[in-house]
Amino acid sequence: MKIIIKKVTVGKWKVNCYLISCENEAWIIDPGDDVETIISSLNLDNYDLKGIVNTHSHFDHIGAVAEIKERYNIPFFLHSKDKRLATQGNLYRRMVGDETICKTPIIDEYLDDLPFLDLKGYEILIHHTPGHTNGGVCFEINNNLFTGDMLLKSNRFIPNLPGANNELMELSLNFIFEKFKGFLINPGHGKSFILDNDSINKFKLMI
Ligand SMILES: [Zn+2]
Ligand SMILES: [Zn+2]
User: Fold this and answer.
1) Residue 76 DSSP SS3
2) Which band of pLDDT confidence, cut at 50, 70 and 90, is reported for residue 155?
3) Angle, alpha carbons 86-204-199 (nearest 5°)
4) What whole-number distance in Å separates Cα of residue 88 and Cα of residue 97?
5) Nearest ligand to the C-alpha atom of residue 161
6) Domains (range + CATH), the chain
7) 3-class DSSP state of 138
């Protein structure tokens, strides 16, 4: 059984939404906006969807959660420490000059209460990596790490967003550098890349 990863980039803030599947089962990560684009590009109708999980709950990552959750009647999982942020999507959209309204999703279960996400017997591991937000997590499967906005190819850190904490960020980044060297990093924005020595050294200069 093979794990397949698909990606679609959506919305004004160009968020990467991912689908991790194994045969008929799949998990959705960070459906940020553009419900119909996500459904058609990732062929959601073809899967037995297990749920939606978010790396964090910034306004650019949660825009399509509520609608997809309702359409497919599937649960939404988030780290408990990002609960409040998930209710503030529209507030922050307005702050950055955007008029679109996104529906606040109901959180069915907290990621911190789960040992892992099951995908046909495979384990998608959940790592709490606070710093970009308090409840930020990374998902690990098969030498792939889904980092949200923790680690982007171009600029590792998006400043001035609610929930950011530089000290926690540094701890979480060092944890990632130590544990995930050689992994394919699938970030919340921009292209995927291998976390090799060169990229680690570049990131360390920016901390
Ligand atoms: Zn973010
Ligand atoms: Zn983002």
Assistant:
1) strand
2) low
3) 90
4) 14
5) 1
6) 3-206 (3.60.15.10)
7) strand
In the 8-state DSSP scheme, what is residue 77? E
Helix H or strand E encompassing 139: strand 137-141
Backbone angles phi and psi of 48, in degrees to 5 = -90, 95
Two tokens, residue 54: 């978010």
- Comparing CA positions, the residue from 111, 14, 112 lying closest to residue 63 is 14
For residue 23, how far is its CA from the centre of ligand 1 (angstroms)? 30
Contact (Cβ atoms closer than 8 angstroms) between residue 63 and residue 139: no
Residues with Cβ < 8 Å from 166, sequence gap 6 or more? Answer: 131
**Tens digit of each residue's pLDDT (9 = 90 or more) over 183-205:** 999 999 999 999 999 999 988 88
pTM: 0.95
- What residues have a C-beta under 5 A from ligand 1, the ion? 58, 149
Residue 164: C-alpha distances to residues 56, 80, 108, 136 (Å): 12, 16, 25, 10
Residues linked to residue 127 through DSSP beta bridges, in sequence order? 138
* In contact, 183 and 143? CB cutoff 8 Å: yes
Sheet holding 184-187, edge to edge: 116-119, 122-128, 137-141, 144-148, 184-187, 193-194
pLDDT of residue 53: 98
Rounded to the nearest angstrom, the distance between the alpha carbon of 15 and the centre of ligand 2 is 6
Tell me how long the chain is.
Answer: 207
